[in-house]
Amino acid sequence: MSPTPRRVMAFAIAATLVTIVVCDLTLGGFRDWWDGHSLTGSVVSNLLVLGVTALIVDEILARRQRRERATSVAVQGMIVYSQAVRAYEALTGAGAKDGSESSTDLGEEMRSLASMILTASPNLFDDPQARVFLENLQRVAGEMLRTLPTTGLTSGEPSARQASLAAAMSALSASRLPLLARLPAQYRSSVDETP
Questions:
Q1: What's the pLDDT tens digit per position in 112-153?
Q2: What does the alpha-carbon distance between residue 137 and residue 57 come to, in Å, rounded to a whole number?
Q3: Residue 49, Ramachandran bin (φ over 0: left; ψ between -120 and 50: alpha; else beta)
Q4: Closest Cα partner for 78 from 6, 22, 134?
Q5: Sequence spans of domains, the chain
Q6: In angstroms, what CA-CA distances link 106 with 37, 53, 128?
Q7: 87 vs 105: CA distance, rounded Å
Q8: Neighbours of 173 (CB within 10 A)
Q9: DSSP at 152
Q10: Taking a C-beta distance cutoff of 8 angstroms, is the pair 78, 172 a contact?
Q11: Are 78 and 183 in contact (CB under 8 A)?
């Protein structure tokens, strides 16, 4: 269950519990009805207390799990980002020193990127910031695949696809920043690659 509905449910149950206690203290007829139906009152109160307790424990455990996994999710995201940069450079020719980037290298980079996306997706999907990164990553991969049927892009070749790919890559680069901030400072510079 995502955090917002869980918090709304916890608030609703806590509000119900407080309302019942206030009504029991202030309204005689309400108190008399619950006294006359003691089994019902006991079941309702136990369920409400159990619901509040379970939701609070669930929230605490979910926060702890997110905190423990935050760094490993960030590292996995940065590894996939580095591969996306390599594939982008192979596609646009930005990474080739002598302009001789072969289609075999491009195909290998794209296969590696696709494999990494498939492997990393479950972990990235569970984290809200990483999910935004994953959406941008998938958008970049899609733009790259749209560009593949052509003969590739060169840095001097203006085209709508090249502009779309560059915009998608820029969005991906921006969405990696929250993940990058989770890494210890000594490791940030080694993964801070911007195409």
A1: 999 999 999 988 888 888 999 999 999 999 998 888 755 555
A2: 34
A3: alpha
A4: 134
A5: 3-61, 70-191
A6: 74, 54, 31
A7: 9
A8: 20
A9: -
A10: no
A11: yes
